[in-house]
Amino acid sequence: MSTADPRIAEAAAFLRERGFGGPFALAVVAGTGLGPLAEALASPRSLAYAEIPHCPVSGVTGHAGRLVAGTLAGRPVLLFQGRAHPYEHGEADAMRVPVGLVAALGAPPLLLTNAAGSLLPEAGPGSLALVTDHLNLSGMNPLIGEPSDARFVPMVNAYDPALRAGLHRAAEAAGLRLHEGVYAWFSGPSFETPAEIRMAGRLDADLVGMSTVPEVILARFFALRVAALSLVTNYAAGFTGGAPSHAETKRVAATAAADVVRLLTAWLEDFS
């Protein structure tokens, strides 16, 4: 396969026929518990992932599995309400078609959101943190098997510095504290062990989770500008007594989703 993936072309044509052709100011992937972001969009219209050709369906609770188009702060936004994870499908490129669709529908900046565990004492449950870089500890890569030289994707400044600066300005305008740090990707679906968290900490990880990194790699493969926002739902396993669970992840993410909406609203108001 190459960047000219026929699956993406078919899915994009399907979406254009149904009024999802854009242009969009921003595309967002909503992580676990962040589906309520769709409720903040004005004039929303939606399609279930299952209706879209070649779009992967998530079976994880807390992921609605819908594509929603609407406006936020007067700007057109394309929202993926949930994601497919490599641990569900056994493939690191599970989100290749959705990320490729962002490129095919005008290539707006892509914001990836996730629920994450924290290794930062000052960033407890309910905190927001920008991802500045990542550690791929999964042993997987979504470009394995890609035959073209496009697979050799440079990853310096993969998390776009200008987008991050804009998000920091937006956080200040919204009165929100925005942490930042390095995100370590573990494959899941089991949570990390305390020993794995100690290892990640020694490697300078600040956040841990089971998503986002393959999507960042795919975004850069498709030449998209990308940023990633973690909503901290728990302290990582063994860190200050952390013992994460999926129920906790969904509960904390849902209660803090309003802060994410405030941040994105302020960010879009500042878009140039």
Short description:
This protein has seven helices and nine strands; from the N terminus they run αββββααββαβαβαβα. With 272 residues, it is an alpha/beta fold. It has one domain: Nucleoside phosphorylase domain (Rossmann fold), CATH 3.40.50.
Pattern of helices and strands: HEEEEHHEEHEHEHEH
Radius of gyration: 17 Å
For the residues shown, what is the average pLDDT? Answer: 91
Uncertain stretches of 5 or more adjacent residues? none
Overall helicity: 25-40%
- Which class in CATH terms? Alpha Beta
3D shape: globular
Number of strands: 9
Domain count: the total is: 1
Distance between the termini: 35 Å
What can you tell me about this protein's structure?
The protein has a 5-stranded mixed β-barrel. The protein is an alpha/beta fold and 272 residues long. Helix 1 packs across helix 3 and helix 4 crosses helix 7. It has 7 helices and 9 strands, in the order H-E-E-E-E-H-H-E-E-H-E-H-E-H-E-H. The model has no long low-confidence stretch (mean pLDDT 91). The chain has one domain: Nucleoside phosphorylase domain (Rossmann fold, 3-Layer(aba) Sandwich), CATH 3.40.50.1580.
Helices and strands in order:
Elements: H1 6-17, E1 26-30, E2 42-48, E3 66-72, E4 75-81, H2 86-89, H3 96-104, E5 110-118, E6 128-136, H4 161-174, E7 178-185, H5 194-202, E8 207-209, H6 213-221, E9 226-235, H7 246-269
Parallel strand pairs: 1-4, 1-5, 5-9, 6-7, 7-8
Antiparallel strand pairs: 2-3, 3-4, 5-8, 6-9
